[in-house]
Specification:
alpha+beta, OB fold (Dihydrolipoamide Acetyltransferase, E2P), five-stranded antiparallel beta sheet, NA-bd_OB-fold, RNA-binding, repeat, S1_domain
Length: 555
């Protein structure tokens, strides 16, 4: 009997499946939303029909179907086996997914839910996590159209013990995109003209879809003229013709151009814009060093700040011209190789110094406002928005320049005479004192070196005497007061005395007369000797002078 029981138990052990394993069963009935499955050894279990449904699909199960289920318990309180189709599918799926992960093969799945940081994906029984960054090559705002859609995924990481699987949809897209790019690029060649659709616009250019591969159309290759922003001539979704300029086979980067399909305006620049010709253009851009003027679409020239104005030397170009303003310019230089045109704005107007020289020749009188006062003179505003300078030495006939300039203030109106106009150096010299006659010149009009004049003593000093002639002061040193050393005493003179003196020098520059009593006495003695005898004749000097004086009396 004991042996029979052991054999019977062995039979039970062989026929009864183990709990926690996947077993095969047959659907024997479907009722109340459940499938009744016979798993052998007169054991039956129930499985909800929804466990037989794929994501987004209706349940697919019929009586007589053989299915695999997971045996959780051999018998429950109702005497039925506790089985699960989902758990069976999960176990089956893990086996299949582990093999796919090892071989780096794609797996099919469907996104069925949203969780923090991403989505959940059903991989045919196993649930995987799809991070938000791995959904697409670009950020996806609305994942609704992707939900429940069966599609391939790449397994990035899996841990069966923890039940974690991380998948990527982006990796599949990038791979297929790379294959597509390689195919499209293989059919392209440099110089080819092709149509594309504007996909994206940035500050530096636009990305154009060439049918699976994007090319960059740089802003400088859109038109021969200056384009400040690509949106000026392109819009997203627009179909355009472009030329393939360069293809980088390694990086798969494609450079495109639009202007290369148009005639290059630089081919006719030298013929259309000869040196010295004047044209009307539009200011397109203003910088610190000048302004760019468009002569025609694609042809721009630079008006350097030094060529903008005859008179405004240190002013920002934006103070002279404004963007979009139409201006007349002269062609100064063309360099077709460097694609540069130098233009001049001031050359279209007459040189104001030339105009001034014609209107106010040397000697003409002008009037202007004091614009600036410096240590060496005054700057006076003149017609034509130019300045003339009055040097310190040209302010006054009598006063020192340093003293005379103290009488002037900015804004004062002054009258002056034009002394010199230097057009090349852009300099005009003026003189305020020239507006009046030179008192020195008037005073010494008849005075010459060697002449005798009468002066009045105005001051007695130890070193000599100060005298005045026609309002001009001169100083006679002690040694020039007399031929006789004993008489070289300043104190023998009194203020108001009239004295005859000899002019020994006339200095127009320093405006001074050199005077000497001693020189007069010597000259008189020499004249007397020559007229009345010599010292060798025995006559004394007193006799000669006496005869000279008597002769003078007789005359």
């Amino acid at each position: 009997m004991a042996e029979f029981e052991e054999l019977l138990q062995e039979s039970f052990d062989l026929d009864t499946p183990s709990e926690g394993t996947v077993v095969k069963g047959k659907v024997i009935a479907i009722e109340a939303g459940q499938a009744i499955i016979d798993v052998g050894y007169k054991m039956e279990g129930r499985v909800d029909l929804k466990e037989f449904a794929q994501p987004g699909e209706q349940p697919s199960v019929n009586i007589g179907d053989e299915v695999e289920v997971f045996l959780r318990n051999v018998e429950n309180a109702r005497g039925e086996a506790v089985i699960s189709r989902e758990m069976a599918k999960r176990e089956e799926a893990w086996d299949r997914l582990e093999k796919a992960y090892e071989r780096e093969e794609r797996v099919d799945g469907a996104i069925f839910g949203r969780v923090k940081g991403g989505f959940t994906v059903d991989l045919g029984g196993a649930v995987a996590f799809l991070p938000g960054s791995q959904v697409d090559v670009r950020p996806v705002r609305d994942a609704g159209p992707l939900m429940g859609l069966k599609q391939p995924f790449q397994i990035l990481k899996m841990d069966r013990r923890r039940g974690n699987i991380v998948v990527s949809r982006r990796a599949i897209l990038e791979e297929s995109r790379a294959e597509q790019r390689a195919e499209v690029i293989g059919n392209l060649f440099e110089g080819q003209t092709i149509e594309g659709v504007v996909k994206n616009i940035t500050e530096y250019g636009a990305f154009v879809d060439l049918g699976g591969v994007d090319g960059l159309l740089h802003v400088t290759d859109m038109a021969w003229r200056r384009v400040n922003h690509p949106s000026e001539i392109l819009s997203i979704g627009e179909t355009i013709k472009v030329q393939v300029i360069k293809i980088n086979k390694e990086t798969h980067r494609i450079s495109l151009g639009m202007k290369q399909l148009q005639e290059d305006p630089w081919d006719t620049v030298e013929r259309k814009y000869p040196y010295g010709s004047v044209h009307t253009g539009r200011v397109t851009n203003i910088t610190d060093y000048g302004a760019f003027v468009e002569l025609e679409p694609g042809i721009e020239g630079l008006v350097h700040v030094s060529e903008m104005s005859w008179t405004k030397k240190n002013v920002h170009p934006g103070k002279i011209v404004s963007t979009s303003q139409e201006v007349e310019v002269m062609v100064l230089e063309i360099d077709s190789q460097k694609r540069r045109v130098s233009l001049g704005l001031k050359q279209t107007q007459r040189n104001p110094w030339e105009v001034f020289a014609e209107q106010f020749p040397e000697g003409a009188n002008v009037e202007g406002e004091v614009k600036n006062i410096t240590e060496f003179g005054l700057f006076v505003g003149l017609p034509g928005d130019i300045d003339g300078m009055v040097h310190l030495s040209d302010l006054s006939w009598d006063a020192r320049g340093e003293d005379a300039i103290q009488n002037y203030r900015k804004g004062d109106h002054v009258k002056a005479k034009v002394i010199e106009v230097d057009v090349e150096k852009e300099r005009i010299s003026l003189s305020v004192k020239a507006m009046e006659n030179d008192p020195y010149a008037e005073a010494i009009g008849g005075v010459k070196r060697g002449g005798i004049i009468t002066v009045a003593v105005t001051k007695i000093e130890d070193g000599g005497i100060e005298v005045e002639y026609e309002g001009m002061k001169s100083f006679i040193r002690r040694s020039d007061l007399s031929r006789d050393r004993a008489e070289q005493r300043p104190e023998r003179f009194q203020v108001g005395d009239k004295v005859d003196v000899r002019v020994v020098s006339v200095d127009a520059k320093t405006r001074k007369l050199g005077l000497s009593i001693k020189a007069r006495e010597i000259a008189e003695e020499k004249e007397a000797v020559e007229q009345y005898g010599s010292s060798d004749s025995g006559a004394s000097l007193g006799d000669i002078l006496g005869a000279a004086l008597r002769g003078g009396d007789r005359g």
